[in-house]
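FIELD: query
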Amino acid sequence: MSGVHVSTETVATVAPIKAVYKHLDSLLEGIAALKKAGYRKPTVLTPFPRHEVEEALYEGEPSPIRWFTLIGGMTGATLAFSLASLTHMNWPMILPGGKPVVSIPPFLVISFEGTILWGSLFTFVGMLLFTRLPARNLPKEVEDPRFSSDRFGIIVEGIGAHDEEKVKSILHHSGAEEVTGGSSAEAHHG
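FIELD: result
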């Protein structure tokens, strides 16, 4: 009986590789070099927010969180207007002069407030989803206290053993003062 051979070989991945940078320019070089080599999702750590890092990582692509805000705002406006309208219709007052039971101008205030409330709540949920919080399975390399003080860092995860030296070389040549991790425990100092 002839059959098709299915390979069960899996690609071995190495431990995360961490690069520590002293200067922002070197960090940006490292990000660009990794992206050019095909490594698209490095974890970048900075002691303070820098728009240059965001531009280098996302290439000017707008945040998807804005869609959460839009949907939340529209939902809130609809719910608030509906609540006010249905409440007013359930307990109608005698309105002289043929005025409508549901009048738009007075209900715009509650609709605006519902837009703000629900838009902010949906934005918060979107931020939690896209920042992957709460972060429970972070690599230990992220916990380096230097990234909260005065150093920048790049952590590359999920690479195969055959790419380890290539990634370390890219990070080292981009100006990293320290490159550690992977299968070997040695550090390259620059």
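FIELD: remark
Strands lie at 17-21, 43-45, 152-156, 178-181, 188-189.
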